[in-house]
Amino acid sequence: GCEWAQPSEWSEQHGLDWTGSHEPAREEVRRLMADLNRIYRQTPALWSRDTEPGGFVWIEPDDHLHNVYSFLRYDNHGTPLACVANLAGLPHDGYRVGLPRAGRWVEVLNTDSASYGGSGAGNLGHVSAVADPWHNQPASAALHLPALSVLWLEPERSPRRQRRP
After folding, report:
1. What is the CA radius of gyration of the chain?
2. Cβ neighbourhood burial of 34 (10 Å; 0-12, 13-18, 19+)
3. What 8-state DSSP symbol labels residue 32?
4. Contact at 8 Å (CB) between 157 and 79?
5. Is this structure's pTM higher than 0.70?
6. Nearest-angstrom CA–CA distance, 59 and 139
7. Collapsing DSSP states into helix, strand and coil, what is residue 92?
8. 56 forms bridges with which residues in the sheet?
């Protein structure tokens, strides 16, 4: 029941709680789950190298002052996906994160999107990384991290390699 925001914990004695299953908040959670599944299927970096050490690299594993952690996943072709999670109840504006290459990065997922019931704050769908080393990475970008959110970023693809909706 978690994937559709059941208000109580599932119990084999009571089954799923279908009352209110069409409430807007539950629709928003279902939309997020659908997008997570779609992005997962379309993004080999999230699954192709699960058993290989080179498929995962920490960017920042312990920013306890900001309550943020970040990491990279790589596919078989070396294409990265950056994950930045802000576990703080406050947003962080201008939060600098290291990235493996300079250039334009696309915000593939923002869990604080208004379509998921969030505030709609974010990076307007993209960020620009500059050749300024940070977190042991050759480039970095300043991000707006909404409170209690996760961002997934990937390098912008050339027009002929764009992901299909």
Report:
1. 17
2. exposed
3. H
4. no
5. yes
6. 11
7. strand
8. 73
Q: Specify the residue for token string 């309550």.
A: 67
Give CA–CA dist 74/72, Å, rounded.
7
* pLDDT tens digits in sequence order for the chain, 165 residues long: 455 566 667 677 767 666 666 676 778 988 999 999 999 999 999 999 999 999 999 999 999 999 999 999 999 999 999 999 999 999 999 999 999 999 999 999 999 999 999 999 999 999 999 999 999 999 999 999 999 999 999 999 866 455 544
Report how far residue 145's alpha carbon sits from residue 150's, in angstroms, rounded to the nearest whole number.
8
Residue 53's φ and ψ, nearest 5 degrees, are: -55, -35
Query: Residue 153: left if φ>0, alpha if ψ -120 to 50, beta else—which one?
Result: beta
Nearest Cα neighbor of 113 from 36, 1, 17 is 36
What kind and span of H or E run contains 145? strand 139-145
In one letter, which amino acid is 6?
Q
Question: 91, 121 in Cβ contact below 8 A?
Answer: yes
What single letter denotes the amino acid at residue 100? P
Q: Is 43 left (phi over 0), alpha (psi -120 to 50) or beta?
A: beta
